Structure formats: structure tokens, C-alpha cells
Amino acid sequence: MYVLAVNSATSVASVAVVNEEKVVSEFFLNTSKTHSERLMPLIDELLKYSDLKLSDIDAFAVAIGPGSFTGLRIGLATVKGLAFFTEKPVVGVSTLDGLAANLPYIGGLICPVIYSKSNEVYAAVYINSACGLERISPYLAVSPEKLVLLLEKFDKRKITLLGDALDMFNENMLKRLGAGLKIAPKEHRIPKASTIGCLGMEKLKKGCIDKLEELVPFYIRASAAEEKRKGKCSN
């Protein structure tokens, strides 16, 4: 089975093809261009260098959030369009789940953090268990300070942080997490379409397929436009 995966939930655009045995190919772009300008060209090049045609793809996986509201909409629209055109199944995967899956052999806690807004981060806490990656906290949209308070409740167990929002944690916050704190290597800090594809394949094997009309971004909280509209309605 070939799964084409897309992750455009953050500033990094990533596309990949995975199968049951390996990551066939993966492209990243971490530049200032908008995702709308580069996703389809990336997918075209990915398929070409993989010696595959779109008709060879058996299913699609896409990061559904949390993350950039615009990036999520672009990624979802792209994948839903491809799935509709090819009549192939599609699954949505949490951005934070995919990011935590970058560290499959890490012991202790894994905490991905990505930019939200208003000095907040999106985050969740995971462990690698005998059953695979396991999330042990809710999906969160919190300030860095509140996240540190949550992590301190784990009695300073070994914690590995990764993600694009690490610069929001000052030195004093990090010191509070103790000597067991680790920062993932930079090559593992960015969201990868390949992990979205691998997690998506696991869902597909279990028969979990999303309906196109029900596949929507997972925001955790309302977008800025929605919050503004709610504010007008309440006045």
C-alpha cells in the first residue's frame, strides 16, 4: 500500500510517500513561501522522483491540526481534492501525534510544542509504551508558563521537548524542568509528512477512514476570524 501524506500545519511544508516497509520519499520546504504556492508542485516532484503516478497511490493522510489555520485549510483542501479525484480513502492525523512520533525510541516523556498565538503554544505529553506512542495528556493550547507547571507535576521525569515553539521557553522555565530535560536534535524538531503517513497507515489498517465531508481542521480553539465573529455577535 502506498500512502501519500501531507503536513502543512506549520511553517514547514512536507510531503511524503510511505508503504508498509519504508519511507519511499519525502520532501521538506522551510522557507517564507506560502503553502498554497508550493504544495502541489512538491507533490508532483515527489511522485516523479518516486517513479509513481497519482493512480499508484492507495490512500492519503493529512495533518489536521492543531497548527496554522491557513496552513491547515490549504493542506486539507489539497488532500481532499486528490482523494475525491482518485476516489481513494483519506485519514486525518493530529499534528502533535505526528511530531511526537519523530522520537520512537526516546524514554521518558515526549512533549511537542508548536506555535499557537497570543503567546501560547499547542502541546501534548506522550510516552513510548509497549503498545506504541501513547498520549497521556489532553491536547493543549496554553502559555509556556502553564505548560511548564503541567510538566513539573510529572516529578521531573526525563522530558524531551521538540517543535518550532522552543524559543518561547526562557532559561528559567527550562531549569525548572530539571536535569532530565532534553531538547531533541534539530533534525527531529520539525513536523514530518512521513510520520503522518505512517500513523495514517496504522489507522487505515484498522479500518479507520474519514469521510471527506467530515474531515475538518482540528483547532483546539476557535480561529481568530471565528473569535472576532463571536465577539460581534455578543455585543
| CATH level-1 class of the largest domain | Alpha Beta
Which CATH architecture of the largest domain would you pick? 2-Layer Sandwich
Mean pLDDT across all amino acids: 91
What is the chain-wise order of helices and strands?
Answer: EEEHEHEHEEEEEHEHEHH
CATH topology of the largest domain: Nucleotidyltransferase, domain 5
The number of distinct structural domains comes to 2
Envelope shape:
globular
Helix content: 25-40%
Task: Look at the structure and name the CATH superfamily of the largest domain.
Answer: ATPase, nucleotide binding domain
How many runs of DSSP E, i.e. beta strands? Answer: 12
By DSSP (H or I, 4+ residues per run), the number of helices equals 7
Q: Uncertain regions: pLDDT < 50 for 5+ in a row?
A: 222-235
How is the biggest beta sheet arranged?
Answer: 7 strands, mixed
The rounded distance between the terminal residues' Cα atoms is 53 Å
Range of strand content: 15-25%
The radius of gyration is 18 Å
Strand pairing plus helix content: what structural class? Answer: alpha/beta
Structural account:
With 235 residues, the protein is an alpha/beta fold. It folds into two domains: 3-96 and 190-234, Nucleotidyltransferase, domain 5 (2-Layer Sandwich), CATH 3.30.420; 106-188, 2-Layer Sandwich (Nucleotidyltransferase, domain 5). Helix content is 33%, strand content 25%. It contains seven helices and twelve strands. The chain has helices at 35-49, 69-86, 95-100, 144-152, 171-176, 193-205, 224-234; strands at residues 3-7, 13-18, 23-29, 59-65, 90-94, 109-115, 121-123, 126-129, 132-135, 140-142, 159-162, 181-183. The strands form two sheets. Strands 6, 7, 8, 9, 10, 11 and 12 form a seven-stranded mixed β-sheet that branches. A five-stranded mixed β-sheet has the order 3-2-1-4-5, sandwiched between helices. A hairpin with a 5-residue loop joins strand 6 (109-115) and strand 7. Helix 1 (35-49) packs across helix 2 (69-86). The protein is globular.
